[in-house]
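User: Sorry, folds how?
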Amino acid sequence: MRRASVSTEPAVLTDAASLPAPVIRRGIGLFGRTFFLLAALLLVSILAWLQTLRVFELEPRAAQTAQQIASIVNLSRAALIHSDSIARVSLIKTMTEQEAVRILPREPDDRFVPFPDDALGQRMTQELESRLGAGTVVASSVNDEPGLWIGFTIDDDRYWMLTDRARLNPPVGQTWIIWLVIAAALSLAGAALIAGLINRPLRDMSVAASRVREGDFAAGFLDETVATREIREVNIEFNRMSRKLAQIEQDRLIMLAGISHDLRTPLARLRLETELSVADDNARDQMAADIDQANAIINKFLDYARPDQVAVEPVVLSELVNRCVYALKDASDIRLQIEVPPDLRVLADEVDLIRALSNLLENASRYGRSAASGIAEVEIVALAKGSRVAIEVRDHGPGVSPENLQQLTKAFFRGDTARTAATGAGLGLAIVEKNIQRMGGALVLRNRASGGLSARIELNRAS
């Protein structure tokens, strides 16, 4: 019998970046979407109310401004009518100095620009004409001098009155901006509060569902006393579902344990009867092998049905690999190549990791044989990268068809025609993946470009 050759030549581990990354669609969460919708609704409502207030404020402001200007014109007209020529000049000078109101004679060749024809200008012009008469003129500049100019007559004499145009400005400017900022801030705070209240029950349900998915049914309990009737009913139904799933899981474990107990006893008796009653050595060995295979299938069913809780601790990876390959070193149909740093440690359950590696080695030795030599060449390589450790088991066999590659870790899947020696229940790689996931790791299977299958285990590195 030829011993398996164990080579310590360096091997190159495929970098994690070369593996296809899963496509993850990231979008806006429910909180963000609700917040933005509420914020947009509130801000649009504020702007609409602001515009509405400005529209409704236009009429009173135009009437009030027109009344003030008409009062000034009427008072100025009365004062000028009842004063003589000498006093009239002094009166005009006093009004200019103290009231910022200038009264000038209106000449036929004066150039003036009519007041802007907007809503405010039209409304104010109408008010002034109704108060001062049909000959009233409202201009924005006279002889290139800007301002609020009012043209009126006194005893067939025409005059210009210049007053401050600031009378037409909105009575509040900065106040509107301050009010708008405060309203927007309060609206955003309210939108955040409402979005949080809407999102909280769904967030709690998401956390509970993830715990139930991991098998922690007790931690997935939701509050059944919340005030909102719809949320309370959903929480009650979710808790009933969790309790039902927990009961189903418990019944499943009890059923599998019962099947194991009930089947192993007759299998043991059948094995003993075979050893004692079958005279043909070849037939006896074949029957014993069939009984052992049936017993191994029962064990795999139990391994697959184990609970998902596992405690991890630092373990030396090279020691575990040596224990896994020890039984294969004397085999003549397998050649091993190992590249594992002696001081590399990972966080794992020692028994589960040994079972996973042994299962991968068993698959590689069974299905990874070279068509030319009939020998399975298997490489075991480990590499630390940051906080993770990658352990890769490679073979040089025919590989797996791309359409079946993603099916290998599914329970009861038996591979394709490239692996014609498939036996058992099809739980080997499903158990490996489940054990690795229980330890916080991941299993990645891919076909190698040079031929063969690569099984990559990623675990957390122990400090």
User: Anything to note?
Assistant: The longest strand covers residues 145-154. Residues 30-81 form the longest helix (52 residues).
